[in-house]
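Practice problem 4.
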């Protein structure tokens, strides 16, 4: 197993294309990052701010996951993850364990496939669940109705 992988190949445009066909190049960069090659300097990557912000968020999560997985191994993983992500404590003990396992599994898979945004979605889904529990959702008993309730079409 190699620790280093080859850099991802990106669609490439020349810097002259950027100046001549800016609208098309910007539209392409909104779909995926583009490598802008230059004769007089190093290649640059053109991407959206949203994607750049997501990349930063993924790196922050990765750093927290590495710290949680490697520190104080006597504690269960769910407790170690609750240190940087205290919202995990709102989940039931079983869901905390499931959350920890799923986050680590999704992180490994999404990084292996170079699709780290999947990790952002997983983290947000678990956080949303914790927020709903904290707000009291799911604690009330469900009401069973004998007859269907008709509602006006919105």
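Answer key:
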């Amino acid at each position: 197993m190699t620790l280093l992988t080859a850099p991802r190949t990106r669609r490439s445009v020349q810097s002259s294309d950027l100046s001549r066909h800016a609208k098309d190049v910007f539209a392409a960069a909104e779909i995926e990052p583009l490598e802008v090659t230059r004769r007089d300097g190093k290649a640059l990557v053109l991407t959206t701010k949203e994607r750049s912000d997501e990349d930063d968020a993924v790196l922050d999560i990765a750093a927290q996951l590495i710290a949680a997985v490697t520190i104080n191994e006597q504690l269960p993983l769910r407790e170690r993850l609750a240190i940087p992500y205290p919202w995990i404590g709102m989940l039931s003990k079983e869901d905390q364990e499931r959350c920890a396992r799923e986050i680590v599994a999704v992180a490994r898979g999404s990084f292996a496939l170079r699709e780290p945004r999947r990790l952002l979605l997983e983290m947000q889904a678990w956080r949303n669940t914790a927020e709903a529990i904290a707000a009291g959702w799911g604690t009330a008993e469900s009401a069973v109705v004998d007859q269907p309730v008709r509602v006006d079409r919105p």
